[in-house]
Design goal:
alpha/beta, two-stranded antiparallel ribbon, binds 2-acetamido-2-deoxy-beta-D-glucopyranose, hydrolase activity, Pept_S33_TAP-like_C, hydrolase, signal, AB_hydrolase_1
């Protein structure tokens, strides 16, 4: 997500790390421990962002070693607009890799819809990410990671034979997996050469210590911590409440990843549960397409066509790409639409129901021979290794699995859980940590069942393709007395995917006075993915609902890895 946070560069620039080209020539971060600076946010056009402040806090680089120096955490604050002001809510947009400064300064009002206007919204770029320093700069030449990845499996995805009994499928996947392993190894060795030990300071354990440290700077000693985390932000939330169980104020995790699996299992073993609702969401896509008909969903031949028939045509097209990739001469970056890329496109699209009309249009165009929209969308929103720096510093070290082991687990998951297994390995780049070159100063691995001084609110959708309800139920089971689970009956990633006034009311009540939904509470959503079906969005709905269709939705800020920006900006 390179563009949105550029607006804040002016406010936070000043002591950027410099690399003189040789290994380990990392300048120390400037500033004095405990400094807290917040002043105006200057947009790229030179204008001040209204109502928002940008700045930074200087925190310990290594909480176990005071002599290691300091880190600079970029901050963005959107003040409470109602009084009396109740305090500060830290927010995180997910990823890992999602910068939070822009989330607070641009989406502050949308967050206040969820938590109440009497709270300040405090976003921060977690260490290693965005404007915070040390920055993750493993690939130093411009475009060099792009060049490194282009058309490799990490870019184009795995091509999977539609015929699972095809004896050529397994050897093909194993060869592809060997490439992937070597690519992980190469990129992490590049990082070892450019960043050396500096890369070990990223990671969620240090990030939650930063939250605690900054909260004390903002609100004083022993003040409680309030937090709203989406997607990977729910991992951060679980670390936060378990590392600081006595400091929990109001904490919401929305779109839940199981932090225990995140910390303790290699990704290929996590995906079984990760993908629990993915194919169900895919089915809903075709049901909604059928309901709305060809005017909004050109994949349908007629309104109320059998959704299975629509799905069969799409699957035949995607599977056909395995043997015959589509030439795409007119993409921004001309190339080929492969089976792996098509699956990545669909998987990314499932998470954002508001993009479904565009997803349908892009697919229909490709089925008619023009794959440019699909290829442009999956072409990377390039980042450095920020995400690996978090996931590999978080993951418990494990014995390197062989390519065969990963492939056999993948084929099994493909058969029993989801056709998107091999897509998630690429779209959620947390793999290859067996080659990670450093060990972080601290790595929290549990327990995840601490007794909290205030309960946490967990929100899960019934059909979230990335963070299924089973995860929310599992995390609730770790914290039976210290949490409540609110279920939103809807599709998409996090409760912000489709607006539910009911969910918003529960969230606001929790932040207002700690009221939790009764066990078993299920909220309905107030809108549908395809606009023709959402006429019921009434003019008296709250502002979040009124903003539907515009650019400014909270879900627009959720950070979803390599192709999230393109997903949101589809034609
Ligand atoms: C936000 O509130 C703080 C006091 O908590 C104040 O110093 C600051 O000027 C306010 N910022 C804006 C943009 O209103
Ligand atoms: C890439 O690097 C070259 C040489 O260092 C420089 O002239 C050019 O402006 C850079 N391009 C971008 C897009 O940063
Ligand atoms: C799948 O592959 C097997 C083994 O090659 C073959 O016998 C079978 O006909 C194939 N099925 C389809 C639907 O192509
Ligand atoms: C917070 O605690 C620190 C060290 O325990 C102390 O030096 C500082 O004065 C305290 N600050 C406030 C505002 O109480
Ligand atoms: C999802 O998880 C539930 C509970 O573990 C299980 O019963 C169900 O079969 C899973 N569904 C898929 C598609 O894996
Ligand atoms: C990382 O670099 C250090 C210092 O050059 C070296 O000793 C170490 O073996 C490297 N680690 C890996 C995994 O390449
Ligand atoms: C918390 O979980 C650990 C395993 O991670 C278990 O040994 C312990 O008994 C659990 N504690 C409680 C209070 O349930
Ligand atoms: C908590 O706050 C909500 C929202 O303001 C309100 O509807 C509810 O009555 C309050 N509950 C209690 C117990 O104060």
């Amino acid at each position: 997500m390179p563009t949105p946070w550029k607006q804040n560069v002016a406010a936070v620039a000043g002591s950027a790390l410099a690399f003189a080209g040789s290994a380990l020539s990392v300048d120390p971060v400037g500033g004095k421990l405990g400094d807290l600076v917040l002043s105006k946010c200057t947009a790229a056009d030179g204008n001040t962002v209204p109502g928002a402040e940008c700045g930074y806090a200087i925190v310990p680089l290594d909480y176990t070693n005071p002599s290691a120096g300091v880190a600079k955490i970029a901050l963005g604050r959107y003040n409470a607009t109602a009084s009396p002001r109740k305090g500060v809510v830290f927010v995180n947009p997910g990823g890992p890799g999602g910068p939070g400064v822009d989330l607070a300064t641009s989406a502050g009002p949308y967050f206040q819809e969820l938590v109440g206007e009497d709270w300040d919204i405090l976003g921060f770029d977690p260490r290693g990410i965005g404007l915070s320093e040390p920055q993750t700069k493993c690939f130093l030449g411009n475009g060099s990671r792009e060049g490194f990845l282009a058309n490799t499996v990490l870019d184009r995805g795995y091509d999977v034979s539609p015929n699972l009994t095809d004896p050529g499928n397994r050897p093909h996947l194993i060869q592809t997996q060997r490439d992937a392993n070597a690519l992980y190894q190469a990129q992490f060795e590049v990082c070892n050469q450019t960043m050396g030990e500096t890369i070990k300071y990223a990671g969620t354990t240090s990030v939650v210590r930063d939250i605690d440290y900054i909260n004390t700077l903002l609100s004083g000693n022993n003040s409680l911590i309030n937090f709203y985390g989406l997607s990977y932000g729910t991992v951060m939330g679980q670390y936060l409440v378990n590392v600081f169980p006595d400091r929990v104020g109001r904490v919401v995790i929305d779109g839940v990843v199981d932090a225990d699996a995140w910390a303790n299992k290699p990704p290929y073993k996590q995906l079984h549960s990760w993908l629990n609702s993915t194919d169900a969401a895919y089915t809903i896509f075709f049901q909604e397409c059928s309901k709305t008909g060809p005017s909004q969903c050109p994949l349908a031949k007629e309104q109320n066509e059998d959704p299975n028939a629509i799905m069969s045509r799409v699957e035949a097209f995607v599977n056909g790409l395995y043997t015959k990739p589509l030439a795409v001469p007119n993409a921004q970056l001309p190339g080929i639409l492969t089976n792996g890329r098509a699956r990545l496109f669909i998987l990314g699209g499932l998470e954002f129901p508001h993009g479904w009309p565009s997803i349908a249009k892009g697919l229909a165009a490709a089925m008619a021979g023009d794959g440019s929209a699909m290829l442009d969308t999956v072409n990377k929103d390039l980042v450095d290794l920020e995400r690996s720096a978090v996931s590999c510093n978080d993951q418990r070290p494990f014995a390197p699995p062989s390519a065969e082991t990963i492939v056999d687990a993948g084929i099994e998951t493909l058969k029993s859980v989801s056709r998107f297994f091999w897509s998630v390995i690429i779209s959620e780049p947390d793999s290859g940590c067996q080659y990670w070159p450093v060990t972080p100063p601290e790595r929290y691995l549990g327990p995840w069942n601490k007794t909290l001084n205030n309960p946490m609110l967990i929100i899960s959708n019934t059909h979230d393709p990335a963070t299924p309800l089973v995860n929310g139920q599992l995390v609730h089971s770790y914290l039976p007395k210290s949490s409540a689970l609110l279920v939103q009956n809807g599709v998409g990633h996090t409760s912000t995917a489709l607006t539910s006034k009911c969910t918003i009311q529960y969230s606001r009540a929790y932040f207002a006075n700690g009221t939790l939904p009764a066990a078993g509470t299920v909220c309905q959503v107030d809108e549908s993915p395809f606009p023709a079906a959402s006429k019921s969005t009434s003019s008296n709905a709250k502002t979040l609902v009124a903003s539907v269709g515009g650019r400014s939705r909270l879900s627009d800020y959720i950070y979803r890895g390599i192709n999230s920006k393109a997903m949101r900006n589809l034609p």
